[in-house]
Design a protein that fits this description.
With about 240 residues, this protein is an alpha/beta fold. The chain is built from seven helices and eight strands. The strands form two sheets. Strands 1-5-4-7-3-8 form a six-stranded mixed sheet, with helices on both faces. It is globular.
Amino acid sequence: MESREIPSVGAQLNVIHHPSPNFGERKNKALPDIVVIHYTAMTSADAACRALCNPETEVSAHYLIAENGDVFALVDEAKRAWHAGVGSWGDVTDVNSRSIGIELANDGLSPFSAALMDALEELLGGILTRWAIPAERVIAHSDLAPGRKIDPGRRFDWQRLARTGLAIWPETQSSTPENFYADLETFGYSADVEEAPRLESFRQRFRPWADGPVDRVDAELAAGLAARFPVDRHKRTS
């Protein structure tokens, strides 16, 4: 599988090559068609980098973006980093083999810095172009693992990415709460996960201020996602 190096794209990025030993080959010669956004939940980017490069942790990501916008290139994009863990998106159950993982230096409680977000936009734009990944397949770690993961959390600005075509934001479509979970499944959330964690993951991303049971706004947003971005519309055979 061809190696694709980041320095050829995005001259504004300050890239620090810091190889992690925690990677392998993508299974069944898969190509990446998903990007997963994480936060580190650690005190600093340096601490996160040490963890992601420690063979004893058995975790990694392709990239880590520091608070000041520095980008640590940890695992070659063509390789399988160990960032997603147990979870699924649509019919993809080995998400590590089908994805590129980006860790953002953030403690999970603080706003994401402007420099970090600027770097993410440039890095993400290059990845989507290099691998022909559509914007709707940029997802949260919490999307693929509801109830197990909550990152990048309620403070992450998905609308900013959507405005520049690097993610998606829902448009409402007439619906009722009875259709909500079926529409979530059509969009990509696993039906094998109980309803409450799926609602929480959906809201973390699309309605971070909402609480209570499923309501009509949730239903109409989910219906819009299902209609415009069904998870299987760009299905790959590899």
